[in-house]
Specification:
Length: 265
């Protein structure tokens, strides 16, 4: 049922929104007692319903070094507050090296953050099925005014579709209806193409600040379809342990702990 809901949640919400918007434009009327429950129901399916419960899939860390977890599925599910776009179990990772702070004033260029341009690696072997890398890396949104702007901008990005939310990204087919998404990548940093086979640990792109992002970070998730719009999020675990919010991620490159797909597919 959760996977079926994932297929229809975005189209249903768009359909209900179009019906509401079309009333004054096309001069027709839908009763209030129909539109309000329909909108509430569609949003509930979009945000709060549709959790896939299955055994977590073991994958390697997609980054190396002191990366701190934000919005971790080890702390709550759904980790980002909603199930849409297959992000039920997604995790955000922010590069946080000792001795170098991340700017928090009004706005900063992406390059002012230590994580910008850091390598992103394949968490498991597979075949690349989607690459998008043309969106710009925008300035940070970590201040209070910036976060307010991010909320408003995020609503517009939602209307424009998943691609504008996740920014530059790579999707890798891991087999057995499992897909890894690497999002908010640096513009024109992707080193693989659709159809390429990648090995676990292989560099595939750089961390960026594209899409709906407050600061340079990596958004990583597993899902059961290559398109986030129609995907259900799948649970995963890093072989070195999945950190809770605020904890540092241990890099698998320093541990030598194999997970699924430790060679090229």
């Amino acid at each position: 049922m959760a996977r079926l809901i994932a297929r229809i949640r975005v189209p249903l919400l768009v359909l209900v929104a179009l019906v509401l918007i079309g009333q004054p434009l096309l001069d027709y009327d839908v009763p209030f007692w129909v539109t309000v429950p329909a909108l509430i129901g569609a949003f509930a399916l979009y945000a709060w319903v549709g959790r896939v419960c299955s055994e977590p899939i073991a994958v390697e860390s997609p980054v190396e070094g002191p990366w701190r977890a934000v919005n971790s599925p080890a702390s709550r599910v759904p980790s980002h507050g909603l199930h849409a776009y297959g992000q039920t179990y997604a995790i955000d990772l922010v590069f946080d090296p000792p001795g170098r702070s991340r700017p928090v004033s009004l706005a900063h260029r992406p390059a002012d953050f230590p994580g910008f341009g850091r390598p992103v690696r394949a968490a498991a072997a597979g075949r690349v099925v989607r690459v998008r890398q043309g969106q710009r890396d925008h300035w940070s949104r970590t201040s209070v005014p910036g976060l307010l702007y991010l909320l408003a901008e995020g609503a517009i990005r939602e209307l424009l579709g998943a691609g504008r939310v996740i920014g530059n990204h790579v999707v890798v087919d891991l087999g057995e209806n499992r897909y890894a998404l690497y999002a908010h990548l640096q513009r024109h940093s992707v080193t693989v193409r659709a159809g390429d086979h990648v090995a676990a640990g292989q560099p595939i792109a750089n961390c960026g600040n594209s899409g709906n992002s407050a600061e340079p970070h990596l958004h990583f998730q597993l899902m059961d379809r290559p398109s986030p719009t129609f995907a259900a999020g799948l649970p995963f675990r890093f072989t070195t342990g999945t950190p809770r919010n605020g904890e540092l991620l241990r890099s698998w490159q320093n541990q030598g702990s194999p997970g699924i797909g430790d060679g090229a597919a």
